[in-house]
Automatic annotation (TrEMBL), chain A:
SUPFAM superfamilies: Flagellar hook protein flgE
Domain Flagellar basal body rod protein N-terminal, chain residue ranges per copy: 5-35
The protein's name in its UniProt record: Flagellar hook-basal body protein
Organism: Senegalia massiliensis
Keyword line: Bacterial flagellum, Cell projection, Cilium, Flagellum
TrEMBL record, chain B:
Name of protein: Flagellar basal-body rod protein FlgG
Protein's UniProt keywords contain Glycosyltransferase: no
Domain Flagellar hook protein FlgE/F/G-like D1: start-end pairs: 94-164
Entry's localization field: Bacterial flagellum basal body
GO biological process: bacterial-type flagellum-dependent swarming motility
C-alpha cells in the first residue's frame, strides 16, 4: 500500500529534474553555440513479487526455455516461465527479456545509440549469471535453450533464474533520472559580418587554452586581446595548430578550412577537431566543454567548414521545449494526485475504520 | 523546483539586458560615427547531481549535470565601416578604414572619436578646431589645431594634412590631423558623446602616418551610424520571445511548487 506512494514520489522527483533542464535550455535560447540538454529516465530494476503464507498452486507458467535472436551486433534474449537477473546501477532487477551486445571486454550489456548512431554501452546494465556478471572469454557466444552460456566451446555460466513457486511476477519500483545527454545537432547559422566571428558547419569543436587545461567550444565569437592573440570573451586563448594564434592588427580572413591570414599572409590554422566519444564531454559553463576525468578525448579530423563572419545560434527549439514543459508539468500533477489518493486512503485507515 | 525558478530568472534578466543593448543601438541609428553593439551570452555553471564513484566498476560516467541558466559574457562592438555621407561642409571629415581622431578634454585627458563633425571655437584673433562639445582636436605633434584670422578655403587631404589660403592668397600648412588605432579597438570603453577611452584591454594607441596608414580621410563627408535597423528589429523580436519563454518557465515552476504544496491539505 505504501509502495505506490513512494513510486509516485520518484516520478515527481524525476519531473523536477526534467523541469530544471528545460528551464536551462529555455534560458539559453540566445546563447551562441549552445547545445540543448535532454534527460533520459530509467525505471528502477523490477523486483520479484511473492505471496506469503500461501500454499496454493503456483500460478507461474512452467519454464519454456530460452530463445536468443541476433541482429548484427545486437542480441535479444527471451524466456517464458523464468527470469534473467540484471545488474543495474540501482541494484539487481529481474525481467523476462534482455537486449544486449557484447562489449570490448567481453561483458553482455545493454546499449544505447549516441548522436552519431554509434552503439555505446558505458554506464549500462550487465546480464548476471549464477557467479556474477557474465564475461565471455572466446570470440563467439552461444546460449542454449536451458540458459547455459558457451563461448569458445566452454561453459561459462547459466543465466536463468527459476522463480520460487510463490512468485507471482515482477513489480516496477518507479523511475530515476539516468543521465542528462547533450544533443549536438547543428544550430542555425547567423550572419554578423564581423571577421572574428566564426561558425562551424558540421561536427567539431574549437580548442581553447584555459588555466585548467584544454577546453572545447562551439562558440566562435572571438576577440583580440591587447597582445594581439585570438581569445574568447573570457580571455582564454584559442588554439591553432602551433599553439595560441597571434593576429595583431589588420585585415583578418579565415577560409573554410580554418586557415587564418592577416593582410593576405598566412598566420595559423585553427585547431578544430571532431570528438568521437562525445558522451564523455561535460559542460562547465562559459560555453566550454571538458572531457570527463579519467577519459581521453578521441580527437579526429574536422570535416565540416568554418564560416567566417557568421555565428552559430543555440539549437534549442522553443516549441519542443514548451511542449516538454507542459507534459512535465502534467506528469508532476498526476503523480501528485496519486500521492494525495494514498493520503486519503491512509486517512480512512487511521481515522475512520477504528472509530467506535 | 527552486532551481528551475532561478534558472528561468537568469534567462529573463539576460534578455532584458539584450533589449537594453538593442534599444541603445536603435536610438543611435542617426548618430555620426556610432558603432553598434551586440550582447553575447554564455551558459552558467553546471552542477553534477551524480558524483563519480572511483570504486565503481560499472565505469559509470557522471552524467547528470544540471545547468543554472545564462549570463551576459560581453558586449561586442561591431567596428564595421558606416557609409560616408556627403555634407558639403569643409569642417566635416569621415575616416574610411581603421582609426580614431584624438580629442583633448578640458582636464587634459585624451579621448578618441570617429565623429568628424568639427567646429571652430573662436579664441580672440584665432580659432581652434574642436568637437561639438568644444573639446580640442589634436594634431600629429599633440598640439591644438589653430587657424589665424583671414583664413579661407580650408582643405584636408586623404591622410589628414590641413592646408588653407591666408589673406594674401598663399597656401599655408596648418597641421596634420592625428589618427591613431588600437590593437584591439573593441576593448575601448564607450564614454558617451561619441568618445572612446583607452583601456587595458584595448592596448596603447599607435599613431598612423602616411607610412603605415591604409585608411583614408574624406573631407566634406561624415561617417553615418553602422546600425542595421532590420537586424536590430529581428534581434528585438527574438529577445522578446526569449524573455517570454523564460517567464513561462517561471510560471510552470510556480505551478509545480503549488502542486507540491497542495499535497498537504
Amino acid at each position: 500500500m505504501f509502495r505506490g506512494m513512494y513510486i509516485s514520489t520518484t516520478g515527481m522527483i524525476n519531473n523536477q529534474h526534467r523541469m530544471d533542464t528545460i528551464s536551462n535550455n529555455l534560458a539559453n535560447t540566445n546563447t551562441n553555440g549552445y547545445k540543448k540538454d535532454g534527460v533520459l529516465s530509467e525505471s528502477f530494476p523490477e523486483q520479484l513479487l511473492r505471496r506469503i503464507n500461501d500454499n496454493s498452486i503456483s500460478t507461474i507458467k512452467p519454464f519454456q526455455g530460452v530463445e536468443l535472436t541476433q541482429n548484427g551486433e545486437e542480441y535479444l534474449l527471451e524466456t517464458k516461465g523464468a527470469y534473467f537477473a540484471i545488474d543495474t546501477p540501482a541494484g539487481t532487477g529481474y525481467d523476462d527479456k534482455f537486449k544486449f551486445r557484447v562489449t570490448e571486454d567481453g561483458y553482455l550489456k545493454t546499449y544505447y545509440q549516441d548522436n552519431d548512431r554509434n552503439i555505446k554501452s558505458d554506464g549500462e546494465n550487465y546480464l548476471l549469471g549464477k557467479n556474477g556478471r557474465i564475461r565471455i572469454t572466446g570470440n563467439n557466444i552461444e546460449i542454449d535453450g536451458q540458459g547455459n552460456v558457451f563461448s569458445g566451446g566452454n561453459l561459462i555460466d547459466t543465466i536463468v533464474t527459476k522463480p520460487h513457486m510463490n512468485v507471482i511476477g515482477t513489480l516496477g519500483n518507479g523511475i530515476r533520472t539516468d543521465r542528462v545527454f547533450i544533443n549536438f545537432t547543428q544550430g542555425d547559422i547567423r550572419q554578423t559580418s564581423n571577421p572574428l566571428d566564426m561558425a562551424l558547419n558540421g561536427d567539431g569543436f574549437f580548442k581553447v587554452q584555459t588555466e585548467n587545461g584544454t577546453r572545447y567550444t562551439r562558440d566562435g565569437s572571438f576577440k583580440i586581446d591587447r597582445e594581439g592573440f585570438l581569445t574568447t570573451s573570457e580571455g582564454h586563448r584559442v588554439l591553432g595548430n602551433n599553439g595560441a594564434i597571434n593576429i595583431g592588427n589588420g585585415e583578418v580572413n579565415t577560409d573554410q578550412f580554418g586557415n587564418i591570414s592577416l593582410n593576405g599572409a598566412f598566420v595559423s590554422r585553427l585547431d578544430i577537431v571532431n570528438i568521437d566519444n562525445k558522451e564523455f564531454l561535460r559542460k562547465e559553463g562559459d560555453n566550454l566543454y571538458r572531457i570527463e576525468e579519467n577519459q581521453e578525448a578521441q580527437e579526429s579530423a574536422f570535416t565540416g567548414e568554418v564560416l567566417s563572419g557568421y555565428l552559430e545560434g543555440s539549437n534549442v527549439e522553443t516549441v519542443k521545449e514548451m511542449v516538454e514543459m507542459i507534459s512535465t508539468m502534467r506528469g508532476y500533477e498526476s503523480n501528485q494526485k496519486v500521492v494525495k489518493s494514498y493520503d486519503e486512503i491512509l486517512q480512512k485507515a487511521v481515522n475512520d475504520i477504528a472509530r467506535i | 523546483m527552486i532551481r528551475s525558478l532561478w534558472t528561468a530568472a537568469t534567462g529573463m534578466k539576460t534578455q532584458q539586458f539584450n533589449i537594453d543593448t538593442i534599444s541603445n543601438n536603435l536610438s543611435n541609428v542617426n548618430t555620426v560615427g556610432y558603432k553598434s553593439q551586440r550582447a553575447e551570452f554564455k551558459d552558467l555553471m553546471y552542477t553534477a547531481l551524480k558524483r563519480a564513484n572511483p570504486n565503481d566498476d560499472n565505469n559509470t560516467p557522471v552524467n547528470i549535470q544540471v545547468g543554472h541558466g545564462v549570463k551576459v559574457s560581453a558586449t561586442n562592438r561591431n567596428m564595421a565601416q558606416g557609409s560616408p555621407q556627403p555634407t558639403e561642409n569643409p569642417l566635416d571629415v569621415a575616416i574610411v578604414g581603421d582609426g580614431f581622431f584624438e580629442v583633448q578634454l578640458p582636464n587634459g585627458e585624451t579621448r578618441y572619436t570617429r565623429d568628424g563633425s568639427f567646429k571652430l571655437s573662436i579664441n580672440g584673433q584665432t580659432s581652434d578646431l574642436v568637437t561639438s562639445d568644444g573639446y580640442y582636436i589634436l594634431d600629429n605633434n599633440n598640439n591644438r589645431i589653430t587657424l589665424n584670422s583671414g583664413i579661407s578655403d580650408l582643405e584636408i587631404d586623404n591622410i589628414g594634412n590641413i592646408t588653407a589660403e591666408n589673406a594674401n592668397g598663399e597656401t599655408v600648412d596648418i597641421g596634420t590631423l592625428k589618427l591613431v588605432n588600437f590593437i584591439n579597438s573593441k576593448g575601448l570603453l564607450n564614454d558617451g558623446s561619441n568618445l572612446y577611452e583607452e583601456t587595458v584591454a584595448s592596448g596603447n594607441p599607435r599613431v598612423l602616418n602616411n607610412f603605415n596608414m591604409d585608411s583614408t580621410i574624406l573631407q566634406k563627408y561624415l561617417e553615418s551610424s553602422n546600425v542595421a535597423v532590420i537586424d536590430e528589429m529581428v534581434k528585438m523580436i527574438s529577445a522578446q520571445r526569449a524573455y517570454e519563454v523564460s517567464s513561462k518557465s517561471i510560471q510552470t515552476s510556480d505551478e509545480m511548487m503549488q502542486q507540491a504544496n497542495n499535497l498537504k491539505r
